[in-house]
Design brief:
By secondary structure, this protein is α/β, with parallel strands linked by helices. It has helices at 2-6, 28-32, 50-58, 68-73, 88-99, 102-120, 122-134, 174-182; strands spanning 36-38, 62-65, 81-83, 152-157, 186-193, 209-213. The two termini are 31 Å apart.
């Protein structure tokens, strides 16, 4: 794969100037970077890019396309460098501008980190999920008598649940910590890829239920409504 990319006819980077890494640790890879570039071009597909949030959480300045849904994430450009979609020269200019703007990178990185932590930290995400679950229209009605003491039942799907439940890889991952946080006030089921049970048979128990799906049954996370 690495040789294919390096020697592809569209690659203009000298082989010695382009590094393609294998497995990396997050957030270390973001801390090592001067910039994170997200040149997404398709306005028809709107989503919240996890990699951009990871970079923001790490305080790494971001360069990304000025698409409406990304512009909101960049708070209009105050937390990221924006360039016109499909504009190669604009992308190059934004990268060069950011690299030459040490103070601007520092300020944007700091502000983006504060914003990301307020919106997507484990605590913030669990609180948003709790508020959604407690909305009257989302509560299951079984008749005139309601048992208030019963825990709410929650389930969420993740494509990146950790497989190493005995090591340090599990602790600190978003899906794992979110499940632990939610389990304090609800009966939680985590629906994860089948590969997640590779090392789950150690006898260790968790305060939430694990269910699995075959990876091939979910070809693209962005296809989930």
């Amino acid at each position: 794969m690495k040789d294919y990319v390096l020697h592809h006819s569209l690659n203009r980077w000298p082989v010695g100037h382009l590094e393609l890494r294998g497995a990396v640790k997050i957030p270390d890879v973001y801390h090592e970077a001067a910039l994170y570039v997200f040149p997404y071009q398709h306005a028809i597909h709107q989503f919240t890019p996890t990699s951009v949030i990871e970079a923001m959480m790490a305080g790494t300045p971001v360069v990304m396309s000025d698409l409406p849904f990304l512009r909101d994430l960049a708070q209009g450009g105050s937390m990221a460098y924006l360039f016109p979609p499909g504009d190669e020269e604009g992308l190059a200019g934004a990268v060069l501008k950011a690299l030459g703007d040490l103070e601007g990178r520092r300020v944007r990185g700091q502000e983006a980190r504060k914003y990301a932590q307020s919106q997507w930290s484990i605590r913030a995400s669990a609180e948003k999920t709790r508020r959604i679950a407690q909305k009257p229209e989302n509560k299951r009605r079984e008749g005139p008598r309601v048992t208030l003491e019963r825990k709410k039942k929650l389930a969420f799907v993740t494509t990146s649940f950790p497989t190493d439940f005995d090591g340090q890889e599990a602790a600190g991952t978003f899906a794992y910590d979110l499940a632990l946080s939610l389990a304090k006030g609800a009966d939680v089921t985590v629906i994860a890829p089948a590969a997640a049970r590779v090392q789950a048979g150690s006898g260790r128990t968790f305060p939430f239920e694990l269910a699995y799906f075959p990876v091939k049954s979910l070809p693209c996370p962005n296809s989930i409504p």
